[in-house]
Each structure stands twice: as structure tokens, then as C-alpha cells.
Amino acid sequence: MTTAAVPEPRRPIVHLNGFPGVGKLTIARFLLKLLPFAKLVHNHLLINPADAILHRTQPGYQTLRRAIRQTIFSALTSEPATFDTTYIFTDFQSDDELGAAVCAEYLATAEVRRAAFIPIMLFCDEKTNMQRLVSSDRELHSKLTDVELVSKFRLEEDVHRFTGHPNYSELDVSNLTPEEAARQIYEHLKHICPEL
């Protein structure tokens, strides 16, 4: 009697969470260069389609956002062509009920995919955050550049942390170049997934 082969684990899902302007996208681009067979899905690829249809204050906006995420996540769990690729997601999810629910979707996707989930919270001091927030590169990508709004986020909200998750890591990028931050994240990934 033969036993069914156990499916190989898929390449991981990396979730970079942090306040707007902390440097997630820039760091993720450098990380992409270090990882073979990786793709970057930055948060505006998921936000902008919803923003094109509904304003974030309108009814149905969060439902639309979730539907877009679920379409992407469905491909990651059911499409074999995705299994040999590491996916790097950038995000800003706060530690409120909505943010925690969205983060739970990422975790559930990795579990169904049978892939390592590697959540990393990036942070920096407020002065550095504000300087990075108003860089010309952010305006080119239609990203948030409102200093007052992000200051309010920092004062009133906290970034969601996957506290207790075995692969969770926090990285202070205040005094790191994007290359240095990406290298540190890469070393963390290799520790969890030596096959990378």
C-alpha cells in the first residue's frame, strides 16, 4: 500500500507593516533584489482599485477592499503557478478591530497555502518618518504625504503587531539605509526558510 506524498511547503508570505512613510516600499524593493523568485505587492496595488470606485468614507468601501484582497489571496492558495514565488506585501494596518481582521486574513492565507508567514513591523522615530513622508518619490506614486494626518496616526493609533507569532520581528529603520534594512530582513527570512 502506497502513502500519498506530502505536498512541499510553498514559498513564504512576507508582511511588512508600518506607518505611512516609514520606508516599507523602498526597503521591499531592495529585499526583492536579494530573494530569488519573489514578487512585491505593495499596498497601493490593493488600495487604488477600491479608491477608484468608492471614497474610503463611503458605505461599501471596506467590503470592496476585502473582495480585492480575497481575489489575490485566492490565487496564492489555489494557483500552483504562485507556489514557487515568495510574496512581499507592504501594508499599514493599525491595531484596531479592522486592522487586526485584515492581518488575520494574511495569516489565514499563509496557513491555507502551507507557507511560512513572516510578519515584520518596521518603525522609525517621528522626525525621520515625517522627512520620508514628504519625499518626492511618494507624490509620484500618489501615496499619502499628509504630515498632520500621519502625526495623528502616530499619536492615536498603534501598528498591528503579530505578538506571539514565532516568525514575528520588529525593525527600527530610523538609522538604517534601505539596503541595510533589507539585508537584516533577508537574514531573518533565511533563518526561518533556509531554502531561500
TrEMBL record:
<protein>
    <submittedName>
        <fullName>Uncharacterized protein</fullName>
    </submittedName>
</protein>
<dbReference type="InterPro" id="IPR027417">
    <property type="entry name" value="P-loop_NTPase"/>
</dbReference>
